[in-house]
Write a structure and sequence with these properties.
Length: 296
């Protein structure tokens, strides 16, 4: 495991201990209050430097502009804040992308007729987390080691985001805590691999797109000791392209990768979607895709 999957969760904004899910994101009380105050007061901030200030527990008060940007980047939703300042009650809102920021890769938008007939898939699309940016690690001059450290940091943060995403999958929160932990521990890697393969479709030079600012080609992966990972992901990406996998199927495949991670021996009901609509046999859906011939 890259990080511990204990009950303790971290604030996705500053890294402090999270008190719960506020405005759609695991966050601490301080960042929750800051975001609420900013939205209710319609406050605009300006960064005195380059809009690249570090936002940590110790430095979160140093730059309000960068802290607010980090809140939005982490996925906090403006629609969740009651602008009338009245306490109590819950609003029903949908995740909305910030201007210029796409929540999904090209083509990953719901088709009206699919959403109307399959509300579960509509829900999966709406709860799909915004992609994270990589934080370049400058602690070493070794380019290969720097790539590996940057990737590990990104995967750690993606894993924290994945835990919050999993809790929004219909039925997941109804499982016992032990079962939730077992599914996450068994399926987190497959879910992240599905994400990377989906983002990497059509990438220039057969790069793997771990983040918009972290694209690795064959040579870079080999230099960092990730040759096997590169081959497996490029193989999976080719399968996606050959199958012309739709956006709706992609988010469903992610949920299935978690639900069918082997803990319950394939008994989870989410497998039924691909069995019915794409004639996928019982078992691991990601393994099934990998075993298909690359022909259209």
């Amino acid at each position: 495991m890259l990080v511990s999957l204990a009950a303790v969760e971290l604030c996705l904004v500053c890294g402090d201990l999270a008190s719960g899910y506020h405005y759609g994101v695991a966050s601490c009380e301080a960042c929750k209050a800051f975001f609420k105050r900013t939205i209710q007061g319609n406050i605009e901030y300006n960064c005195p430097v380059m809009n690249e200030c570090e936002v940590t527990k110790r430095r979160r008060k140093a730059c309000q502009a960068c802290r607010f940007h980090k809140c939005l980047q982490a996925g906090m939703m403006r629609e969740g804040v009651r602008v009338d300042r009245v306490r109590g009650g819950r609003q029903t809102y949908k995740r909305r992308a910030e201007p210029g920021v796409s929540l999904y890769p090209p083509g990953l938008f719901p088709l009206p007729h699919v959403v109307s007939k399959l509300p579960v898939i509509s829900h999966l699309l709406l709860t799909e987390p915004a992609p994270l940016a990589a934080n370049q690690d400058d602690s070493t001059n070794d380019s290969s080691l720097r790539t590996l450290l940057t990737l590990c940091d990104l995967l750690n943060r993606q894993l924290l985001l994945l835990i919050g995403w999993a809790k929004q999958i219909p039925g997941f929160s109804g499982l016992s805590l032990v079962d939730q932990m077992s599914l996450l521990q068994s399926g987190w890697m497959e879910v992240l691999l599905v994400d990377v393969a989906w983002r990497s479709q059509g990438a220039v030079g057969e790069e793997l797109v771990f983040a918009e600012n972290l694209r690795l080609d064959d040579a870079q992966c080999r230099a960092a000791g990730l040759a096997d990972l590169y081959e497996a992901l490029r193989h999976l990406t080719a399968k996606y392209q050959a199958m012309k996998l739709s956006g709706e199927e992609a988010v469903t495949l992610k949920a299935m990768a978690l639900a069918n991670s082997g803990v319950f021996g394939g008994s989870c009901g989410s497998e039924e979607y691909l069995k019915i609509h794409r004639k996928v046999p019982s078992g691991d859906p990601v393994a099934f895709v990998l075993e298909m011939p690359v022909s259209t």
